[in-house]
Fold this protein.
Amino acid sequence: MSVAAWNRFLQEQDNWPAASRVNSSTPYAVQARNALAGKTFEKKKRMSQEERHLQILQAAVKILATKGFWGMSLQDIADEIGITEAALYHYISSKDDLLNMVLSECYDTPDADEYNAVTAGVTDNDGHRVYFYPRYCLNIALYNLQRPELVQLYSVLNGEALSPTHPAHSFFIGRHMRNWEMIGSMNWILPPDVDEDRFYDLYTLAMSAMDGLQYRWLGDDSLNLLEEWISISDIIFPPSEWAGFTDPSEYDPAPDRCLLPLTLSARQ
């Protein structure tokens, strides 16, 4: 492993949700991860508009992650939260409307963006805020360990949405470039040989590897997502090239240490 500071994340598995922990009880048989384990939904008769909205979203995540969009019915959602389908229409207008709510409010959220970025950055003594991309990718894995049911939701819908007739087709087809626009707006500290074209290729490789690894993780509950990602990270970001550019812990806060010349934006 290239960064000693990452060791502590592997030692904090007891703090992960039960569905994200490694199950070693079935060493000779592959068992799918139960990403929805422990999910419960209170069935209250009286709720505020905001509480009911959240309850509907939670129920939709559970049903969509299990049945997908094509297999889900609004009756499934109504049954999950203990109301009639007719009552559900007081809160949503259609099945497509519910899907759009889930996509816009549950997965690619400002909270997720902030979590991924905040500990991947450092402010140098000149006040420049710069970010370390390998740590940013690690943070994505750490964040997704906290929300396995949403990882399953994303994986199921992403597969379904390959069909142009799926209502989320445009969302998933355009997601890669939307996220790249956000990545491009950040101030990344990168090795000297990494220009914008190569950085885009690395971004594409890292996100494709992350998606594939998460599929494997969902299908095999003996797989340690974080451990696997750290191992893959050393291949995508080899220490021989990325030493000093991997994690904020590698930053030397000397008084005359300005990181801006090491950023991609300064070299363009």
The first strand starts at residue 121 and ends at 123. The mean pLDDT is 90. The domain at 47-107 is CATH 1.10.10.60 (Arc Repressor Mutant, subunit A). The radius of gyration is 21 Å.
